[in-house]
Every structure is written in structure tokens, then in C-alpha cells.
């Protein structure tokens, strides 16, 4: 199975999730694709309200997930021409997904994808100044 196919499989499983309709069967499928450990870690982040959806003044949104070592930016919907359709600024994504390719994604991306479908993101309206400080804070993390 090519990388493109696996991500379209993931997308179709995610599309079947709706608020109040997160079936055991779906959880099982996600557990097989991503490993149970990663799925449980992602569900834990959602339970702890760690997935934040920042609504920006110009109408778009930005996702951030609060991790142990700070907030990470998550980009859950990159253009379909990208080989991997999502990105996270955490170290695990760089090492396990991009470099060693041992995982399909990190727990932050998985949490964001599921939380979006379940409408469980914590929504925050953000003004321009807050957004700029958010981005600069996260750029610092990427560089360190
Ligand atoms: Zn991550």
C-alpha cells in the first residue's frame, strides 16, 4: 500500500466519526493503523481538553495541542498533493514520522483529527497579537 493510499484510508475512517458516533469498530480500526498506544495517548489529550482551535480574526483557524513540554502547532489538512497530509511541530513528528518513518503521525495530529470530528476542540477566539505571540513561541520550540 502506498503512502497516498494509507492516508486516504485514514481520511475515510475519520470521516465516519461524528459527535456521539465514535464506535468501537472505528476505535479498533484506528488502533490497528496507528497503534493502540498512540490512539490512547491521543484520546487522553482530547479528554484533558488539550486540543485548542484558535479562531483567527480573518476567519481561518489554527490548531494547537498542549503537550508535556509546551504547545505544538498542528496542521491537520495540508494540500492533498503533500506526501503526508498533516504536520506537527513536536519532536516526535520530525523523528518518528519524517525521519525514521516508523509512525504514520504523532499523537497531537491524531488527537486534532479526532477532536475535530467529535467537535471536542476547545475553541478560542484569538486576536492578531495573540496569534503572533503564539506563533513566535512555537517557532522557538522548533529551533531548540
Ligand atoms: Zn506532535
Walk me through this protein's architecture.
The structure is a single chain. The chain has 144 residues and is an alpha+beta fold. It has one domain (3-143). 51% of the residues lie in helices and 17% in strands. It contains 6 helices and 5 strands. The protein has helices at residues 3-15, 24-34, 36-47, 91-99, 107-118, 128-143; strands at residues 51-55, 61-67, 70-75, 87-88, 122-125. Strands 4-3-2-1-5 form a 5-stranded mixed β-sheet. Helix 2 packs across helix 3 and helix 3 (36-47) crosses helix 5 (107-118). It is globular and about 40 Å long. The chain starts with a helix and ends with a helix. The chain binds zinc ion. It holds the Pfam family SWIM. It comes from Multifurca ochricompacta. One of its GO terms (molecular function) is zinc ion binding. Keywords: Metal-binding, Zinc, Zinc-finger. InterPro entries: Znf_SWIM (IPR007527).
Number of strands: 5
Strands side by side in the biggest sheet:
4-3-2-1-5
The small molecules bound here are: zinc ion
Average pLDDT, all residues: 89
Number of helical stretches of at least 4 residues? 6
Straight-line N-to-C gap: 35 Å
Helix content: 40-55%
Low-pLDDT sequence parts: none
State the major sheet.
Answer: 5 strands, mixed
Broad shape = globular
Number of domains: 1
Amino acid at each position: 500500500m502506498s503512502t497516498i493510499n494509507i492516508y486516504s484510508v485514514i481520511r475515510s475512517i475519520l470521516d465516519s466519526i461524528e459527535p456521539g458516533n465514535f464506535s468501537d469498530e472505528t476505535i479498533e480500526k484506528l488502533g490497528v493503523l496507528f497503534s493502540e498506544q498512540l490512539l490512547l495517548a491521543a484520546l487522553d489529550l482530547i479528554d484533558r481538553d488539550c486540543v485548542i482551535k484558535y479562531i483567527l480574526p480573518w476567519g481561518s483557524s489554527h490548531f494547537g495541542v498542549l503537550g508535556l513540554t509546551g504547545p505544538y502547532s498542528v496542521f491537520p489538512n495540508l494540500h492533498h498533493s503533500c506526501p503526508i497530509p498533516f504536520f506537527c511541530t513536536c519532536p516526535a513528528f520530525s523523528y518518528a514520522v519524517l525521519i525514521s518513518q516508523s509512525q504514520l503521525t504523532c499523537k497531537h495530529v491524531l488527537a486534532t483529527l479526532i477532536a475535530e470530528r467529535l467537535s471536542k476542540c476547545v475553541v478560542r477566539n484569538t486576536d492578531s497579537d495573540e496569534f503572533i505571540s503564539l506563533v513566535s513561541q512555537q517557532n522557538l520550540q522548533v529551533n531548540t
